[in-house]
Write a structure and sequence with these properties.
Number of strands: 13
Strand content: 5-15%
Shape: globular
Structural class: alpha+beta
Strand order of the largest sheet: 6-8-7-12-13-11-9-10
Largest sheet: 8 strands, mixed
Length: about 475
């Protein structure tokens, strides 16, 4: 297949070609691997290619009769484990770390027919906005390699935008699916709480904010991934729910006329004037499709919500680091193996008290109730994916290699840019980044839609309506400067 034809296909399209006998799963894997070899020296988005899975797509028990028929898939190097494979989490501390078993979601991915051919880059432990530490790797944005992809699903965002593959794994603890999707021009859905399981080592309730998912280039690919990979494992600590009908069926119908709120003033945080104009432009598009669009905002104490979210992150990451260093015989993070801000987070959060976590969860509750009340009056709230432009590489202030001595100030600076995504994690509601805008620097600007808990299907239905209205031409039909079809 020519690279141009390859880049025009989504995952469901490639699977159909396999079922029709026009291609084999092995040919798909070989072309994806060739695409990685072609572009990864420029983008540094893939940590490792699994050559055995490229040669034999049934490796690891992948069901080639599944709905994805052996379509190549890259796993973020964080989250679900793959038996026998390295999982190094973007960290020098974790080099050589090899998983002993598949996570439940890994099994579901294989059963769906997705062939896991490698792993993608992430910041250390997923704890910052860019996969950018020169001692490990620096992932570049294919639209302009002088810029970051944002994070933490960095390599995923770059590989999809560059046309190397159509669908890839991502995770989201505060925007890590949606933010890089927005900066790279992909679709990125953070699903509601209770959709994907990472059993047996964790669940959605473990951290209260983290979820699994994917980035894609078409709505139907995201819908199919949710349909075929969702569900809880035996013994889940919390309920896992199912949709009333498959999303792949739902998205074929337009939604009813919706009440859509536009917003960008979240407490102390504001988007740039250009981003506000792009948000308004997206609102006009939705109005032209028959929806009611106006400015509105949930009655949330944003300062309290972001403070509680910060407490959650600091205490969660501190325990993550504590568990990882203990397993390696250290009593504190080695400075030559763990990035400086992650050491400070460990110091700041290791002894978070039960009382502090209880106060945090009380704010989680009031914030979730406020969003719930808002969604009684409105179906969707629309925001820019970030408040500020995507940073150039080398913008150290957002990174865990930052020398900022103040952990709270460092997180506060993150929220000034990445203001609109984290509260969806806090509340367990879905958020979808759609590539509808353009930044002044020429990079894509995602426009985020959020809805009430378990209204994931409504967001996909709305995105599918938009996709049809624009003739499938996300990003206005533009392609990045680094792309498999152009080299």
């Amino acid at each position: 297949m020519s690279w141009d034809d390859w880049a025009k296909q989504d995952a469901m399209g490639l699977a159909a070609l396999v079922r029709q006998g026009e291609l084999t799963a092995a040919e798909l894997a070989a072309q994806a691997a060739a695409g990685i070899a072609r572009l990864n020296p420029s983008l540094s988005a893939v940590v490792e290619v699994f050559e055995d899975a490229v040669a034999d797509p049934a490796t690891g028990g992948t069901d080639l009769a599944g709905p994805f028929a052996g379509v190549p898939w890259l796993m973020k190097d964080l989250g679900p484990t793959i038996a026998g494979r390295l999982q190094e989490m973007g960290s020098r501390l974790m080099r050589g770390n090899r998983a002993s078993s598949d996570a439940y979601l890994t099994t579901r991915i294989r059963e769906a027919g997705l062939n896991i051919i490698g792993r993608t880059t992430t910041p250390e432990f997923g704890c910052c906005s860019s996969a950018e530490n020169p001692a490990v790797y620096v992932t570049r944005n294919p639209w302009n390699p002088d810029y970051t992809t944002n994070g933490s699903s960095a390599g995923c965002g770059a590989m999809l935008a560059a046309g190397v593959l159509p669908l890839s794994h991502a995770t989201d603890g505060g925007g890590s699916i949606r933010i890089p999707a927005g900066a790279c021009g992909n679709l990125g859905l953070k699903p509601s709480r209770g959709v994907f399981s990472t059993a047996p080592y964790a669940s959605d309730i473990t951290s209260l904010v983290s979820t699994q998912g994917c980035q894609s280039r078409t709505v139907r690919d995201t819908a199919a991934f949710l349909d075929h990979c969702r569900g809880g494992a035996p013994g889940e600590f919390m309920p896992y729910w199912t949709a009333p009908e498959p999303y792949t069926t739902l998205i074929q119908r337009d939604p009813k006329p919706l009440r859509i709120a536009l917003s960008h003033e979240w407490g102390d945080y504001r988007a740039t004037p250009h981003f506000v104009a792009e948000l308004e432009r997206a609102g006009r598009l939705l109005e032209s499709l028959g929806h009611h669009v106006d400015w509105a905002l949930p009655a949330v104490d944003f300062r309290a919500a972001f403070a509680a979210q910060t407490t959650c992150y600091i205490s969660n990451f501190a325990q993550t680091v504590a568990n990882l260093i203990a397993a390696r015989g250290f009593d504190r993070p080695p400075e030559d193996l763990v990035e400086p801000m992650n050491i400070r987070i460990w110091e700041a959060g290791l002894h978070t008290s039960y009382s502090e976590r209880a106060r945090m969860q009380a704010v989680f509750n009031t914030t979730s109730r406020a969003f719930g009340a808002f969604f009684e009056e409105w179906d969707v709230i629309l925001t820019p994916i970030t408040a500020l432009p995507t940073p150039r590489l080398g913008t150290i202030e957002y990174l865990t290699i930052s020398e900022n001595p103040d952990v709270l100030d460092w997180f506060g600076n993150l929220w000034r840019n990445f203001a609109y995504t984290p509260l969806a994690n806090l509340c367990g509601i879905p958020g979808l980044s759609m590539p509808l805008g353009v930044q002044e620097n020429g990079l894509p600007l995602g426009i985020q839609a959020q809805a009430k808990q378990a209204d994931d299907g409504l967001l996909l239905q709305l995105a599918a309506q938009v996709e049809r209205a624009i003739g499938g031409q996300w990003n206005g039909g533009r392609r990045p400067s680094v792309h498999v079809a152009t080299g």
